[in-house]
Amino acid sequence: MIWRREFITLLGGAAVWPLAARAQQSDRMRRIGVLVAVAADDPEGQARIAAFREALQQLGWTHGRNAQIEIRWSAGSDETRRRHAAELIALAPDIILASGGSVVGVLLQATRSVPVVFTLTPDPVGAGFVQSLSQPGGNATGFTGFEYSLSAKWLELLKEIAPRVTRAAVLRDATIPQGVAQFAAIQSVAPSFGVELRPIDSHDVGEIERGITGLARLPNGGLIVTAGGAAIVHRDLIIALADRHRLPAIYFARYFVTGGGLISYGTDSIEPHRRAAVYVDRILKGEKPGDLPVEASTKYELVINMKTARSLGLEIPTTVLARADEVIE
């Protein structure tokens, strides 16, 4: 059984799609490229792209009628990302959706002329993707995932639900800036919570297994899984290891918890793809990506799996349950 607190988020008018506009699309076929950070058989990736395509259709862009949507799935591989980015550019698309922060860099290395709309991308200014949030300039704009300061909240929540934790492994992808920045944010608050941290590279399956198994040999361990394409690709393994070693773990996204993880706090990963369709529509109608401000995520979710909590012998505080947007029984 799942109960959920539903609420309506205003998107600054972006979700209001005039019916007249939907009927006035050009008959010229437009080519829309899509580069996704996960594998084609990943349910999370499929849900993101389904939301994007549905929103496009509501705006009047129908695949096979006036839009040709070309999708490439990178499965978390650097080599595959680069190859698929080159393939999409070679198709001469009118615009490209970058679904996930880990694929934005390779696209912008491949083109500075084709418009790119990105989703779930932290700190696009620091990464050099845009000049500023209000005036991106160049050929890219889109939607940020979260601020790095959010990472500190994961340690705070982990201590709330598992106060005995004094050691925590932090899974992060050290090959991307966001992996380094998230770990730094957690590290900055760890002394105040009396927690010793150890980083584990989420990009390497062997290191994930060795790191989590090593942590489990020590008392009072916990796990923090930071945002990144590698963690998404390896999430079944991470969840299984946390369960096997009875480690309380907090994740950055809801789909880890629906897959058996303990608790998550982060942005809704589907909503930005609906909003991205609005930007794609506006750019196809003539607006420039450099003039469209980068927007922040507007919906954050705290999700708890009570079945997993009970299996770990944890009693979730009522103060945490009261704040939850979704509780899985």
How would you summarize this macromolecular structure in one to three sentences?
With 329 residues, the chain is α/β, with parallel strands linked by helices. Helices cover 39% and strands 19% of the residues. The strands form 2 sheets. The chain has an 8-stranded mixed β-sheet with strand order 1-13-12-11-10-9-7-8, with helices on both faces. A 5-stranded parallel β-sheet has the order 3-2-4-5-6, sandwiched between helices.
Provide structural commentary:
The protein is an alpha/beta fold and about 325 residues long. It has two domains: about 30-145 and about 270-300, 3-Layer(aba) Sandwich (Rossmann fold); about 150-265 and about 300-329, Rossmann fold (3-Layer(aba) Sandwich), CATH 3.40.50. It has 13 helices and 13 strands. Strands 1-13-12-11-10-9-7-8 form an eight-stranded mixed sheet, with helices on both faces. The protein has a five-stranded parallel sheet with strand order 3-2-4-5-6, with helices on both faces. Helix 6 (about 175-195) links the parallel strand 7 (about 165-170) and strand 8. The protein starts with a strand and ends with a strand. The relative contact order is 0.15.
